[in-house]
Automatic annotation (TrEMBL):
Family classification: Belongs to the pyruvate kinase family.
Name of the protein in its database record: Pyruvate kinase
Domain of life: Eukaryota
Cofactor: K(+); Mg(2+)
Length: 1056
């Protein structure tokens, strides 16, 4: 490149000169020389070698110790001591063969080539190039000089500066010409040299400041500037490349005196006239345009250049199938499933074992243990008899079974090989071992039931039996029990229901023994077999259903949300609200009564904001919500919202709010203050706030609730004038606007997840929250990293990650962020502070549509019912805003300040409920009247089969007018796909996991239940119908559609 040419250069007049600035000195030709960094670096490297001094081998090398001892215990040598006794040898250092003064002996030889010769013309050309670079402001600033206040390059001052001799006068000159900042920067950079160089007369290092070039020999200017650190002084006739380009870098800041500037022509010559002293002619630039990139990309060059070969030959890497899992799965696809099933089976086995051990380790008090032991011994004496079975009457009395139910029992015992035994007066079911030969069908299926005999109520069982079996004894149903007759002994087993009958001729799974025909005696005696004796009466409050082994087991009751259950019982299917509601818990709603009122009013998710309060307060709130779910039967999920790395205010010194009036002067400071804060002073959490902000910037508080203008900067304090009055709340976010656009560099310097956020995330994992909302997400990598971290720390718990879209960076990477996260929150308050207000509605609609397309739940948040913080009824515009969010198809709506610190949180929740219900009903009627299906949304899911099944189920539900859709899902995926299709009827989602059930609380139109179910769809439906009918949530004759992610099919049926 070539320095820009100018015909004349002005001379800066100094203070005290009679003349003013003049512009009559022509620019010397040396400033038009080509600027060649390669010349400069090469010559500078060689000249630097010439500064070295050779040193030779010491005569005493290898004949002295690294440290001498002055007696025992005096000095310490750096080499091992000489062994030996006696005072004269104690502690004496040994001679080191390779040691000389603590260093290795024999340094670089003196005959080494220490210096380098440099071609004189090349050296002069490099100096001319360095001189030309001093006239280019871009190169001077790129080198680090502070020259923002310098009026012109090259900078020439009058010759009156050569007569000064005081350092104070030199300071004045630098300040007058705008070079003081660069000199101060060089002064502040003085420091101690690192390493051992500081011990060899090179203790300090500092940056290079301005170079003062004078023209008159013997000027006093040398004395004036020599005491300024980093400022060098040189004569124009003795300029050196080491001074003009220190370190080989072009662009040093040079200040010329008028006489020195005029001598440049005769010292370095021109392009036509050689220099007077050496006869050197300046090198002329070879090219008028030195833009190499433009030359290469020109049509003249590109037309003859060989085109780029874009063909890439990739070599396929062979993978070892013995080590690489992907290669193994290609050969054996079932291996992954087998390993997964083995892992799950092992985990189930370990869990069952731990639960069994935990139940056995229940400790009783000594008094209770003594009572249990005594009662057990007494009961054992009445239960266990000798080999002749003489105490069966006592056992039957304890069971409360009459003798009429055991007709023919003696024959059964004899048939199985037990002779000379009295028949036990208990109901029995005779089953044979799998290893025994098969007998007659009627003999193998003999069963009796206490239901057929109508027995009297049994006496209460012993206390230790109640504690071990945890069975609720009732007078309406006899106790389940079992016994085994084996080797002449009778042992009692745990209570369990009986197996079903395998005889297709039996009308009922079990039947009374006296109703069955007795088989004829066998022709030959059989081997003695153990008998499994069971009573066959259903347990109270439990539903019996067959498991895969064919044995009836007891299923626990279904878990449903109490508020949803009451709504279904009273108003039916069509009155259920599809849009979910999220409420922020704050000081106004953190009490047990307030939380219960919100849960009863329809709160699906409780949100805790880590921006406010401490972790102990949030722990109490989370545990209060969990306790409310357990005690009252609700299913409220918990969402934790991180603070994020945003610029925000402090806590206002403990005050709940502050009012900023028009024209008031407020101070925003990064200094820490003790409470209370000074009047009209706000602390800011960003340490670089005072450095980055500029006078004239606009400062928006909490998305524009108040507006300030920066008028002055005073160190760590920034004075601002209030231009738009408003209410200032603790920890409100701050946004900077400059020239009509938001300043993104402020938040871009901060990480997405701060150190405090990581501690809060660990707290949320420990407390078992269901959702973690991440603030100010900038890219999808943040979400992926956080999900990996949660998976490693949560030990199997299923915590969903919600990404909050509230910045320009989030909008730039919107689709990637949605795909990586488990849900999206549209934080319109912070978003409105970074984008124009008129763009917020369109952005909201775009996010909602894209989330539905990618099957991710979306929450519309911020300022939905802002006026209800102070007033009991919302504005009509707020109701219209809520209606538009519901009409767009948002999965959930969120209350922030309305429920956290508002005066009417329950009324605000009721408004959201009523508006959502009305808009959802109107939307369905409008679509039905226009004969239009719900909006079809395309996607690119890998699970096409499940997607098509859900689409078909939703269309069938709308066309047939079914009352509900039942979906049995273990992962929640199929329920989520159904929610995405937006059917007219509610969707009952049954899952076996409590965490999956709470996650489904955020999906549109889903009513989640926790229920244990098997792979048998018919059994699941019959049991589910029975449970829901018992609780009044469905009625006989209701039309439902059933599907599951285990069997990819759709069933349409009426509730029996």
């Amino acid at each position: 490149m070539v320095a820009s040419s100018r015909p004349l250069v002005s001379v800066k007049a100094l203070e005290g000169d009679m003349a003013t600035d003049s512009a009559g000195i022509p620019l010397p030709a040396v400033f038009q020389a080509p600027i060649r960094p390669d010349w400069t670096r090469f010559v500078h490297k060689l000249l630097s070698c010439n500064k070295r001094q050779p040193y030779a081998v010491s005569r005493r090398a290898g004949h002295q110790t690294s440290a001498e001892s002055w007696g025992t215990g005096r000095a310490v040598s750096r080499i091992p001591r000489v062994p030996g006794g006696g005072t004269h040898r104690a502690g004496q250092g040994a001679f080191g063969n390779m040691c000389r003064g603590g260093r290795m002996f024999a340094p670089t030889k003196i005959w080494r080539k220490w210096h380098r010769r440099v071609n004189i013309n090349l050296r002069r050309a490099a100096v001319a190039s360095a001189l030309a670079a001093t006239a280019v402001p871009a190169l001077v600033m790129a080198r680090g000089h502070r020259v923002e206040s310098v009026p012109e390059f090259p900078l020439v001052i009058s010759d009156s500066a050569e007569s000064i001799e005081k350092t104070s006068q030199a300071h004045k000159i630098l300040k007058q010409i705008g070079a003081e900042p660069d000199a101060e920067k060089a002064k502040d950079s003085v420091g101690i040299r690192p390493g051992k160089g500081k011990m060899r007369n090179r203790r300090y290092i500092n940056r290079k400041g301005p170079l003062i070039v004078y023209g008159t020999e013997g000027s006093k200017i040398v004395k004036a500037f020599r005491n300024l650190p980093g400022v060098d002084v040189a004569n124009v006739e003795r300029l050196n490349l080491l001074d003009l380009a220190p370190g080989g870098h072009l662009g040093r800041f040079v200040i010329w005196t008028e006489s020195a500037f005029k001598k440049l022509e005769e010292v370095y010559g021109t392009f036509e006239t050689p220099s007077l002293k050496k006869g050197f002619i300046l090198p002329r630039p070879k090219m008028a345009n030195a833009d190499l990139g433009r030359i290469i990309n020109s049509d003249e060059v590109q037309s003859v250049v060989k085109p780029l070969n874009k063909e890439v030959k990739r070599r396929e890497k062979r993978k070892n199938p013995l080590k690489n899992m992907a290669a193994v799965l290609k050969l054996n696809p079932y291996l992954g499933t087998a390993r997964k099933m083995a892992t799950l089976a092992e985990a189930a086995r370990v869990k069952a074992r731990n639960e069994k051990l935990a139940s056995k380790r229940t400790k009783l008090s000594p008094e209770e243990a003594a009572k249990v032991k005594a009662a057990g011994k007494a009961w054992y004496k009445t239960m266990i008899s000798d080999s002749d079975y003489t105490e069966f009457e006592n056992f039957s009395k304890w069971l409360g079974v009459t003798h009429s139910t055991v007709v023919g029992t003696e024959h059964v015992l004899r048939t199985c090989g037990i002779v000379n035994a009295k028949p036990p007066a208990i109901p029995i079911v005779c089953t044979t071992s799998p290893l025994t030969p098969r007998h007659s069908p009627s003999a193998a299926c003999l069963a009796t039931s206490a239901r057929g005999a109508n027995p009297p109520p049994p006496p209460p069982s012993p206390p230790h039996i109640k504690k071990r079996t945890r069975h609720r004894a009732s007078h309406s149903a006899p106790l389940h029990c079992s016994a085994v007759i084996s080797h002449g002994r009778l042992r009692r087993r745990r209570a369990h229901p009986p197996p079903p009958s395998r005889n297709p001729q039996l009308p009922h799974p079990v039947a009374p023994l006296h109703h069955l025909p007795l088989p004829p005696p066998p022709a030959r005696p059989h081997r003695r077999l153990p008998l499994r004796l069971r009573s066959v009466s259903p347990a109270a409050d439990l539903t019996a259903f067959p498991n895969p082994n064919g044995i009836l087991t007891a299923d626990p009751a279904i878990d449903a949300d109490a508020a949803t259950e009451a709504e279904l019982r009273e108003n039916g299917f069509r009155s259920t609200r599809r849009t979910k509601l999220v409420c922020t818990v704050g000081p106004a709603t953190c009490g047990p009564a307030e939380l219960e009122a919100l849960a009863a009013g329809g709160m699906d998710v409780a949100r805790v904001n880590m921006c406010h309060g401490d972790r102990e307060w949030h722990r109490r709130v989370i545990r209060a919500v969990r306790g409310l779910n357990e005690d009252k039967g609700f299913a409220v999920a918990v969402m934790m919202d991180t603070e994020g790395s945003e610029i925000h205010m402090g806590d206002l010194g403990g005050a709940s709010s502050a009012k900023a009036e028009d024209g008031e002067i407020w101070t925003f400071s990064v200094r820490p203050f003790e409470s209370p804060l000074p009047e009209r002073t706000i602390n800011v959490n960003y340490e670089g706030f005072n450095e980055d902000v500029r006078v004239g910037d606009e400062l928006l508080v909490d998305g524009g609730m108040a507006r300030f203008e920066v008028i002055e900067k005073l160190g760590p304090d920034v004075k601002c004038r209030c231009t738009d009055p408003g209410l200032l709340l603790p920890r409100a976010n701050l946004t900077f606007w400059r020239d009509g656009s938001v300043v993104r560099a402020k938040n871009a310097m901060l990480p997405t997840i701060s150190s405090k956020d990581w501690l809060d995330i660990d707290f949320g994992i420990a407390e078992g929250v269901d959702f973690i909302a991440v603030s100010f997400v900038k890219s999808a990598e943040v979400i992926k990293h956080l999900k990996s971290y949660i998976a490693a720390r949560s030990r199997g718990s299923d915590i969903a990650v919600i990404a909050k879209v509230e910045s320009i960076d989030s909008l730039t990477n919107l689709e990637e962020i949605i795909q990586a996260s488990d849900g999206i929150m549209v934080a319109r308050g912070d978003m409105g502070a970074q984008v124009p207000l008129e763009q917020v509605p369109a952005i909201q609609q775009k996010i909602v549509k894209l989330c539905r397309q990618l099957n991710k739940p979306v929450i519309v948040a911020s300022q939905l019912l802002e006026s209800m913080i102070e007033y009991p009824i919302p504005t009509r515009a707020e109701v219209a805003d809520v209606s538009e969010a519901v009409r767009q198809g948002a999965d959930a709506l969120m209350l922030s300040g309305e429920s956290a610190m508002g005066r009417y949180p329950e009324k605000a929740l009721n408004v959201l409920t009523s508006v959502s219900l009305r808009i959802e009903k109107w939307w369905r009627e409008e679509k039905r009247r226009e004969a239009l299906d719900l909006q079809n949304v395309s996607s690119s899911f890998s699970d096409k089969v499940s997607e098509e099944i859900c689409n078909s189920a939703a269309k069938m539900a709308n066309s047939l007018g079914v009352d509900a859709v039942f979906v049995f899902t273990k992962t929640g995926h199929m329920a989520s796909l159904l929610s995405r299709c937006r059917p007219d009827c509610p969707v009952f989602a049954f899952t076996t996991s409590t965490s999956i059930r709470r996650r489904l609380n955020l999906q549109w139109g889903l009513i989640p239940f926790r229920l244990s179910f098997s792979d048998d769809m018919d059994s699941n439906l019959n049991r589910t119908f029975s449970l829901l009918k018992t609780r009044g949530m469905i009625r006989s004759g209701d039309l439902v559609i059933a599907l599951s992610d285990m069997l990819q099919s759709i069933q349409v049926m009426n509730v029996p």
